[in-house]
Amino acid sequence: MHGLLALTLVGSIPEREMQLWTEPGLRQRISEGLEQAAHGKTHDRGDFSPYLEDTDEDWQVVYEYRFTDDANATLTRLEARGAAEAAKLK
């Protein structure tokens, strides 16, 4: 008996990680952020636990985050924009 057996490797990517494969540029931005963090270019943004809606048992939950220089600058701009928009409503 002769024949051909073809095996296809199948990997499973958890849904929460799928974005890394589907969003262009995301892996590069994460790599850059890890590089910045490795060089100590981070900023403490405090406790984010009040914003948690649910916890994932597969992950160790960390409530205090440190942001890279680029991410911190973006958050600071967004906070300023939000404050300006809120001031307009008063």
pLDDT averaged over residues: 77
Unreliable segments (pLDDT under 50, ≥5 consecutive)?
A: none
Total DSSP E strands: 2
Q: Fraction of residues in helices?
A: 40-55%
Q: Characterize the overall form.
A: elongated
- Rg, rounded, reads 21 Å
Number of helices: 3
Largest sheet: 2 strands, antiparallel
Q: N-to-C SSE series?
A: HHEEH
Q: Percent of residues in beta strands?
A: 5-15%
Spatial order of the strands forming the largest sheet: 1-2
The CA-CA distance between the termini, in Å, is 83 Å
- The computed structural class is alpha+beta
Describe this structure in words.
With 90 residues, this protein is α+β, with helices and mostly antiparallel strands. Helix content is 47%, strand content 12%. The chain is built from three helices and two strands; from the N terminus they run ααββα. The protein has helices at 15-22, 26-38, 69-89, and strands at residues 42-47, 64-68. The protein has a two-stranded antiparallel sheet. The protein is elongated, with a radius of gyration of 21 Å. It starts with 14 loop residues before the first helix and ends with a helix. The relative contact order is 0.11. The model has no long low-confidence stretch (mean pLDDT 77).
What secondary-structure arrangement, pairings included, does this model have?
Blueprint: H1 15-22, H2 26-38, E1 42-47, E2 64-68, H3 69-89
Antiparallel strand pairs: 1-2
